[in-house]
């Protein structure tokens, strides 16, 4: 399975079979996490691998009572170390980069799990103080997420995706494909006006130059519309 297939196929699994997960697969997930992009190569994360069944059965009580967590074979608690980021990047490192780094590591782990036929769930809803106490996490370390891991006991449904063109802007926030088409048309109209101005100002003998300018821009507009598949 290549990375594109893993991205497309990955689903959140909220119920797992009783088949135990091989530790070498967990190790591969963890190693993949450490290769995630991170600010300044700080690698300011730690991973707590939870295999104790009694602890796993208890965790749902502190995760908005998501009882299905009990069925996971393994939990991975992803912790961020904000102090390391703060030393180098200040408040932005502490509040943003640490979370971004942890999120990148989590995504790497989820994608590798998919290639290993494992089901996973990224859990962000939990009582952080309770989780810190259960796993003896230091005060200056933050639990960023919990990953539930196991073999899915059902086939996750297809994801309902928003249209791609509704999520992409070009060159400025809010400049989607339709608005870009309008912008190009407005620009084209403006060029026509400029061409007329050039023609009027320079005299009839130079109308050919204005015509050439309009033709070139018309070709440019067609090429851009073709590249962006504008309608």
List the helices and strands and how they pair.
Elements (H helix, E strand, L loop, with lengths): L2 H7 L13 H12 L10 E6 L2 H7 L14 E7 L1 H34 L3 E5 L4 H7 L7 E9 L26 H26 L4 H22 L3
Antiparallel strand pairs: 1-2, 2-4, 3-4
What sequence of helices (H) and strands (E) makes up the elements?
HHEHEHEHEHH
Number of domains: 2
**Distance between the terminal alpha carbons, to the nearest Å?**
35 Å
Quote the CATH topology of the largest domain.
Answer: NADH Oxidase
Radius of gyration: 27 Å
- Report the sheet with the most strands, covering strand number, pairing sense and barrel closure: 4 strands, antiparallel
Strand % is 5-15%
Described by the principal axes of the CA atoms, the overall outline is elongated
Under CATH at level 1, the class of the largest domain stands as Alpha Beta
Low-confidence stretches: none
Approximately how much helix is present in the residues?
40-55%
Structural class: alpha+beta
Number of strands: 4
Name the CATH superfamily classification of the largest domain: NADH Oxidase
The number of helical runs is 7
CATH architecture of the largest domain: 3-Layer(aba) Sandwich
Mean pLDDT: 87
Question: Tags for this entry?
Answer:
single chain, NADH Oxidase, 4-stranded antiparallel β-sheet, 231 residues, 2 domains, 4 strands, alpha+beta, 12% strand
Please, could you describe this protein's structure?
- The protein is α+β, with helices and mostly antiparallel strands.
- The protein folds into two domains: 3-150, NADH Oxidase (3-Layer(aba) Sandwich); 164-228.
- It contains seven helices and four strands.
- It has a four-stranded antiparallel β-sheet with strand order 1-2-4-3, sandwiched between helices.
- Helix 6 (177-202) packs antiparallel against helix 7 (207-228).
- The model has no long low-confidence stretch (mean pLDDT 87).
